[in-house]
Amino acid sequence: MMEIDSEKKLGTWGLTAFYISSVVGVGILVVPGIAYQIAGPASLISWIILILSSIPLAFLFARISMLYPNSGGLIHYIRLMFGKRIGDASGFLLLITMIAGNPIMGIASARYLLHLWQLPATNGMVLAVGFGFMFLSVLFNLLHIKTGSRVQLGILAALIAGLLATVFIAVPHFQLENLTPFAPNGYFSIGAAMVVCFYSFLGWENVSTIAEEVKHPKRTYKKAVLLAVGLVGILYLALTTSVIMVLSYGKSDEYSLVLASLLSEISTPNATYMGTIAAIILMVLCTNAWVLGASRLVTALSRDGVIPAVFTKVSRTTNAPYLSLFLLLAFYGLVLLLLYFGTGTEKELILFANSSFILVYVITFLATYRNLNAGLYRIYSLISIIFCVISMFFIGWMIVISALFMAMYILYHRRKTKHGEKVV
């Protein structure tokens, strides 16, 4: 019996693949260009800071996973450390963040598709096609489809191989003159670019949701987190360097199409076409995964009483949480509609997603600083708190909005307790 059970659990390479799948996604196809637009070649410093900062973040999340294995992930840990009220408020904020943040992937897919078909990428067209991609992902998640681990590993391997091949082909096209001016918008823009780049590093916390499925957690997490941090860092740094050294700053209006722009400079039209198709496929797969994760979060919060219990219902035939998915689709449409009338872009959504995750991270790291007595992990916690606080400064007023969502839920929760409901 033990042998059968052990075969179902993740080893080092399986956990490493999950790490990389969680962190490397749409962000690597969009964010490097946006950061380059904000800070120019100096955005490279932003990426280096983020890569170094991700080391203590990743180790802390791995430590939480080892000590407190639970499918509730960070929310479960925050509940244990600070109580149900703060834990539920953090879960509510993450739900709002997924509702607002997931359409970023639909928008990114729309931009690449319109570029592929050579159609005008007006704001209305991008948002409409973006909603179409979100609709497809919701439909996909209504099906009872199980993707095998070999397929997932194969897609991940193909992604890494393709991106590294792009970097390798780009090296002969490097131009040192692209490094000047190094900071065209001033060195303060490095911080602004860093906040945007942070979106590409969201996902280290996802490992806490699968901790119960990891074989020999202490040994496996230590190996996997080292491999993942190294591979992710190399991948982002290599692609970002290629973008900066090949694409001249200020000569492109399509910074969000960073991979397509890079391929058009270093390869043939056919290769660019195939690369764009591959990018769209990758983004669709990532969107499917994040919509699935969001629907599970809706269901979990519904079971915990954070949101109405009706969203716990699942389909009898496919076991899909159809009400959760329809709720998400409605809110995705609302977010994109607000962007249209507010003439906003995915940059605002990225900033909101980053601000919300940073706020939840601060709560988590305050807990680890108090709870993890080992000197090294307390240092990691302190470094991570300082990094998050600095990031808050560059995010600015958007962090206030995230804090308001948490405050709204806490006030609502307090009002419920006054009517006789017990807080666990």
TrEMBL record:
Subcellular location, record wording: Cell membrane
Residue intervals passing through the bilayer: 12-38, 44-68, 89-113, 125-143, 155-174, 186-204, 225-250, 270-293, 322-343, 349-367, 379-412
Pfam families the record matches: AA_permease_2
One Gene Ontology term of the molecular function aspect: transmembrane transporter activity
Membrane topology classification: Multi-pass membrane protein
UniProt keyword annotations, A-Z: Cell membrane, Membrane, Transmembrane, Transmembrane helix
GO CC list: plasma membrane
First-listed, main subcellular location of the protein, grouped into a coarse class: membrane
InterPro entries named among the record's database cross-references: AA/rel_permease1 (IPR002293), APC_superfamily (IPR050367)
Descriptive protein name: Amino acid permease
Organism of origin: Xylanibacillus composti
